[in-house]
Amino acid sequence: MVIYLAGLQGIPADLYEAAAIDGASLWQRFRYITLPGLRNTHIFVLVTTTILAFKLFTQVEVLTQGGPLDATQTLVRLMYVSGFKELKVGYASAMTVVFVFIVLIISVVQRRLFVEEREVA
Asked: For each of the chain's 121 residues, which pLDDT tens digit applies?
């Protein structure tokens, strides 16, 4: 929410004032000023949330240790179990490298799909 608050504060108040003078309703101001103004914030939150979802470990380890019949096993926990509990360090290292590439590819695809607008100063 702090990130969205910062994004909202970055939208110039002049735009809202001009829209109000032109007779735009609250919905129109939200749709045509607020949403486009928060586009870069949405992109940042989406990419960050995706990366954080992929590295889910602590909650699964503390609550279920992989769950009944590995139902809650995550890739990061599998790397941990392979490397530190089963002592398959090479296998865990290979999974880690593949994991990094998967996260990198997904992040790049998201950035390409949602091309960030650059402000010219």
From this structure: 999 999 999 999 999 999 999 999 999 999 999 999 998 898 888 888 888 888 888 888 899 988 888 888 888 999 999 999 999 999 999 999 999 998 889 888 887 877 755 555 4
Cβ distance 19 to 28 under 8 Å?
yes
Spatial CB neighbours of 45, under 8 Å, sequence gap ≥ 6 = 3, 4
User: What would the two tokens of residue 100 be?
Assistant: 């990094």
pTM of the model: 0.66
